[in-house]
Amino acid sequence: MRIVKIIFLVIVVLLGLGSGTSKVMLLPDEVAFFGKTGLTEVGIQIFGAIQIIGSLMLPLKKGRFLGSLILIVTFLFSTVLILMSGNISFGIFSILPIALIILLLKLKN
């Protein structure tokens, strides 16, 4: 079970880092999508930085719970926006990282 937890942890950290980095770097797709929701470029970068911070907290036992909460909130926010934009299939797929984080919290050492 420990190996499964480590694999889930690595996947979630990489997803969070990738998602956050794309926002901090202001990739055109991110700017176009979040710009439609009213977020400014600075807001998008702050949102991405928060995701990166949450991702970096996950490997630390003392920071895992708070990092998980940060990522759940940010991924949930993005998922809601995706669903509201009408992209139902990608919105449903975007629930997977949230489910992985919750599963990670449920798995004890």
- Put simply, the count of helices is 6
Strand content: under 5%
Describe the main β-sheet briefly: none
Q: What is the averaged pLDDT score?
A: 93
Order of helices and strands: HHHHHH
Shape: globular
Instruction: Tell me the span between the first and last alpha carbons.
Output: 8 Å
Oligomer: single chain
Rounded Rg: 14 Å
Uncertain parts: none
Helix fraction by DSSP (H/I, runs of at least 4): over 70%
Strand tally is 0
Q: How many separate domains?
A: 1
Q: Which structural category do the helix and sheet elements fall into?
A: mainly alpha
Secondary-structure map:
Blueprint lengths: L1 H23 L3 H9 L4 H17 L6 H21 L3 H6 L1 H12 L3
Mind explaining what this structure looks like?
- The chain has 109 residues and is mainly alpha-helical.
- The protein has one domain (2-106).
- Helix content is 81%, strand content 0%.
- The chain has six helices and no strands.
- Helix 1 packs across helix 6 (95-106), helix 3 packs antiparallel against helix 4 (64-84) and helix 4 runs antiparallel to helix 6 (95-106).
- The chain is globular.
- The protein starts with a helix and ends with a helix.
- The model has no long low-confidence stretch (mean pLDDT 93).
Note the main attributes of this structure.
mainly alpha; 109 residues; 6 helices; globular; single chain
What is the structure about, briefly put?
Helices cover 81% and strands 0% of the residues. The chain is built from 6 helices and no strands.
